[in-house]
Give the backbone structure.
Amino acid sequence: MRFRDRREAGQLLAKELDFLKDREDAVVLGIPRGGVVVAYEVAQAIGAPLDVYITRKIGAPHNPELAIGAVASDGRTVLDHDLVRQLGVPKDYVEEETERQRREIERRAREYRGDRPPLDLAGKTVVVVDDGVATGATTMATLRALQKQEPKELILAIPVGPPDTVKQLGEEADRVICLSTPRLFWAVGAFYAVFDQTQDEEVKRLLGAL
């Protein structure tokens, strides 16, 4: 399955989430940046408030696109210990990179929300939306952190992800909705015709539109 762009992916996900339409307890969280574009379409379709949940990847030395872990908004860190050992990543590097990503999370939260406080998630049906998952490290950190906020139900909604990763994430969420789980998986962007970089300005615009 291939999507035209993030908007189409969000519209297709929204159809699978129609059971939440106009539910007063439903909240949609987009993972910036690209996930917010998908999440906006979902939130608009089901009539739910939209917010961001910022989780940052901890990239490997000399290969920042390879996730060896992730940091969530509450400071919670999830590491792929096997990969860290396999690559021989020094402890100092992990600590420094973790702190750098925490500072970036704080900066982005101020940038995206301004003075608005984050939504209260306790007792809510929380839908976490991204534009896709690969290793699942950032999504794992997100789900584990959100469970600490005691939502009534935690739903992960994604357009695409590899089967093993989606299955693993299913152990962290109450429900996973994934439109496509191709066995041959190399990158999220490969399943989109248009997968351009989402800018901070667009994230702010979409958050302010609902």
